[in-house]
Write a structure and sequence with these properties.
211 residues; mainly beta
Length: 211
């Protein structure tokens, strides 16, 4: 007898594998007694104009609430009520406390009917950052367009996302941490009764490359 692997569990396992690889490589490098550090942390707490970061994030997404244009809450139609999400971000710093960038991301989540909703956002990001010694706390706002695909239906619309993160500057080039985002995905149609505003919360493990 053949047993089918649950698609959701398979995707979660892939996310965990992708997250664990860079962390395991960093751990091997950081605890090798034969390697002498070539970087000493400078506690200036500031970024200079021209500094850049590339960010990789992987984690889970939780649907929170859905409301139609009449102000009525719609029931949660996802099972399980957790999905997967990930993003790639580029940021350019104009000074110590302001940066602009862009992101491409995606999420998937299964429905009660056994189908899968996919959302692919592409947006522009602006934010600020606070630094305390080796800890860095960026706050950002992202606005852009996204594609929703479900079975044979496709919807194209806008999205808005707010995020916070906490990083530890492990080396001159890399910092690692956690990030959380609230995302608003409206689906506006010509039929107001079919329009809905979806809200999700993302929790992710994040690696940031500095250059």
């Amino acid at each position: 007898m053949q047993h089918r692997i649950n698609p959701f569990l398979a995707r979660v396992m892939i996310f965990i594998l992708l997250i664990s690889l860079p962390l395991s490589l960093f751990a091997q490098e950081g605890f090798d007694p034969d390697i002498e550090p070539d970087w000493e942390y400078q506690d200036d707490g500031l970024y200079d104009r021209g500094d850049q970061t590339f960010v990789i994030s992987l984690g889970v997404t939780f649907p929170t609430f859905f409301i139609n244009n009449a102000g009525k809450l719609n029931p949660n139609k996802f099972d399980p009520s957790v999905g997967g999400t990930g993003s790639l971000n580029y940021n350019y710093y104009f000074g110590p406390y302001f940066f602009l960038g862009g992101e491409i991301s995606g999420l998937f989540i299964h429905t009660l009917g056994g189908n899968t909703l996919f959302i692919i956002p592409l947006g522009l990001k602006a934010g600020t950052q606070f630094v305390y010694k080796r800890f860095e706390f960026p706050i950002s706002l992202t606005l852009g367009m996204c594609w929703h695909t479900y079975i044979n239906m496709v919807h194209y619309g806008m999205y808005l996302k707010g995020g916070v993160a906490a990083y530890f500057r492990a080396t001159q080039d890399w910092s690692f941490g956690l990030s959380s985002e609230w995302a608003w995905f409206p689906q506006w149609t010509n039929d107001k009764n079919q329009s809905v505003n979806g809200n999700f919360v993302h929790l992710m493990l994040t690696a940031r490359y500095h250059f």
